[in-house]
Amino acid sequence: MPKYLRNCVGLFLISLLFLTSAYGAGMVCNKPTMGGFSPISFSFTCTNTSKAIFYGYNVLPYNPPTGSNFSINTGVCADPSHQIGPGQSCTVTGTFSESVAGTYSLDFSDYYGGEWHNGIFKYNSGSPVSAQVTSWHTYYQAGPGANPRSVFVDSQQVVYVATGNGGLAVSRDRGVTWTNYTTSNGLPSNNVTTVYVDGNTIYAGSSSKLSVSTNGGASWLSFSQTFNLLSAIYASGQNIYVIARQGQPKLFISRDGGSTWNVNNTVPASQGVYGVGSAVYVATLNSGVYISSNAGSTWTQSTSGLGSNNVHGVYASANGQTIYAATAGGLSISTDAGSNWLNYTTGLASTNILAVYAIGSTIYAATDAGLSVGSIINNNWTGNNYLVSDNIPSVAAHGTYIYAIVAGSGLAISTNNGSSWTIVTTTAQGLGGNQVNAVYAIGSTIYTALNNDGGLSVSYDSGQHWTTYTTANGLSNNTILSVYAVGNTIYAGTNGHGLSFNTNNGSGNWTTVLNNLSIQGVFASGSNVFVGTYDGGNGEVEVSTDGGQTWTQSYFISNSYFTGVYFNGSNIYAPTTGSGVGLSIGTGSGSSFNWNNITNGLPNGLSQEVYASANGLDIYVPTNLGLYISHDGGNNWQQHTAGLASTNVFGVYVSSGKIYAATAGGLSISADDGLTWTNYTTANGLSSNQVNWVYVDGFTIYAATNNGLSVAQ
């Protein structure tokens, strides 16, 4: 009985027992209740209807099914010293766990008589029931990627993070999910050093180029100007200001939207730039703050009262009257547009301020030893320190949300003004992308094939941490369509770039074979590997008998292609889409298979994930017109649509007599051969209603969705 079965009313064969002792009367026990995940909880109450005294109960499994781990941990009244007098009742509570289908019975005895009384209840877990999933856990692309550099939040609460190797990451739900824009979108490098947003225009700086996007990051253009170590950006209309090195870090200005650039030699070596309209403020290395009121035509140096002339960053209020300077000697604030400064050190996490941000009277001071959040009250700093001992190089905020870069760890997000924090960015804590094409699992190892250049994300500890493999590790392409693993060998089917495989659990070199093919499905059994492919409108089933080193084309179809592949130990099942081929079944061994196309009873356009029983009689085929099931090897088919979350079915898996259907409307589960279905959607905690693939390993369900990997246990 899988542990996700719950409240299976009517499955208990109840015997109301009258236990007799030497005194001739007995105990009357009520109907027990059961429910919950395995371990299954139980409870029953017995009343002493005799004139005798009973002394507690002993509850034990009775003849449990072979192979189960049926065990009981009883609670109240399972104690021989507990007396149950005439008219008194006693409730016995406890749990039992098991691992295989079968009939489960509990016995109990009264210690007074010492006799066993079989059959207080029985539970037949092999009977048809509706599976109940009570909760889901979803693994998302946890954040922008490794080595985040700087963070920016716009007026619409969209969060932008420049990362060291993940391009520009953008979250449109305040840090819950992320989209990474990389070289595949037109950025010149995935090493993005800084970001700024002006209206609908995003500016992303890399080590040598400034790139601009006007469509949310979907595509990028880079200016012809070459920079050296671009580190800060401010833009207002056609005026763009960047800090980059020319020997020392200098201020570059464009007044025509980036077409032409000039180096400003008035402002000395610089570290940060910010502006409000035509007012521009530059944080310099050792010369204080330089201020221009005319978009950079002329400049005034401001140093009076600064905590240090080494200014790391600068920020200003909307009217430009209040300016905040992050200095190496404290937080300096000017309330007269930079004429004079007051410096604050007491109460801050550190006097070495690396960046500063402000909303109204609330100031966020990022230091080399934590983040200080507070206000100036009666000319004193009043506030709290968070993320103590962490180096915080960048900070931004909106409302009650605070976003702080934690050097070496990731992006820390607080949704409650700093009371609690979650670090969400490093890829070790999440998937390489959120659109999951396929999933496979062996024990505690989970493999996810990711769309949109997300790569292959693997967790070796049941989802606690993730490692993402990409072309940087040797994969032939970062869009992975299918995945399978046997032992230490991982097979990743890519989009148009063949099959990449690794024989060392992902470490070391990857080998790519079947170049230029899209590997729609991959399945392995020992050293035998099977793939279904797409090749410019045609399809091939390729077979390898040596773990993927060499290949034989087993079957070819024209004007159609294979959307997946499954092997049940003797037959290959390859679904197709295109010119009415239907389901192709290959029978044979080694690399030699005889093929038969089944079209009768099946529609055109079969989905990727099919399933077949070991004897080949039961075949399950997902289609855009529902789930088709055959119980005679494909000779006859029954279409199932009623009760499914959607008739557009992408994948199917069968385990312990239950059918799991991945659909465009959620995950559907049936325990009665498709007659009835229980549907799970976002309303039940599923991360997305579009489930692309489903896999079941023991008691664990893996649902590959368009918004992460959802797992139920």
List keywords for this structure.
66 strands, 713 residues, Methylamine Dehydrogenase, Chain H, 0% helix, Immunoglobulin-like, globular, single chain
Structure, explained:
The protein is mainly β. The protein folds into 3 domains: 118 residues, Sandwich (Immunoglobulin-like), CATH 2.60.40; 280 residues, YVTN repeat-like/Quinoprotein amine dehydrogenase (Methylamine Dehydrogenase, Chain H, 7 Propeller), CATH 2.130.10; 284 residues, Methylamine Dehydrogenase, Chain H, CATH 2.130.10. The protein is 0% helix and 49% strand. It contains no helices and 66 strands. The strands form 16 sheets. Strands 2, 3, 4, 6 and 7 form a 5-stranded antiparallel beta sheet that branches. Strands 51, 52, 53, 54 and 55 form a 5-stranded antiparallel beta sheet that branches. A 4-stranded antiparallel beta sheet has the order 1-9-8-5, with no helix packed on it. β11 and β12 form a beta hairpin. It is globular. The two termini are 13 Å apart. The N terminus is likely disordered.
Helix content: under 10%
Can you identify the CATH class of the largest domain?
Mainly Beta
CATH topology of the largest domain: Methylamine Dehydrogenase, Chain H
Kindly name the structural category. mainly beta
Q: What is the overall pLDDT average?
A: 83
Compute the separation of the termini in Å: 13 Å
Tertiary shape:
globular
Give the topology.
Layout: E1 12-14, E2 27-29, E3 33-35, E4 40-48, E5 57-62, E6 71-74, E7 89-97, E8 103-110, E9 116-124, E10 137-139, E11 148-153, E12 159-163, E13 168-171, E14 179-181, E15 192-198, E16 201-206, E17 210-213, E18 221-222, E19 232-236, E20 239-246, E21 248-254, E22 262-264, E23 270-276, E24 279-284, E25 289-292, E26 300-302, E27 311-316, E28 323-327, E29 330-334, E30 342-344, E31 353-359, E32 362-367, E33 370-377, E34 380-386, E35 394-398, E36 401-406, E37 410-414, E38 422-423, E39 436-442, E40 445-450, E41 455-459, E42 467-469, E43 480-486, E44 489-494, E45 499-502, E46 511-513, E47 518-525, E48 528-534, E49 539-544, E50 552-557, E51 560-562, E52 566-567, E53 571-578, E54 583-589, E55 592-598, E56 611-612, E57 619-623, E58 626-630, E59 638-640, E60 649-655, E61 658-663, E62 666-670, E63 678-680, E64 691-697, E65 700-705, E66 708-712
Antiparallel strand pairs: 1-9, 2-4, 3-4, 4-7, 5-8, 6-7, 8-9, 10-66, 11-12, 12-13, 13-14, 15-16, 16-17, 17-18, 19-20, 20-21, 21-22, 23-24, 24-25, 25-26, 27-28, 28-29, 29-30, 31-32, 32-33, 33-34, 35-36, 36-37, 37-38, 39-40, 40-41, 41-42, 43-44, 44-45, 45-46, 47-48, 48-49, 49-50, 51-53, 52-53, ...
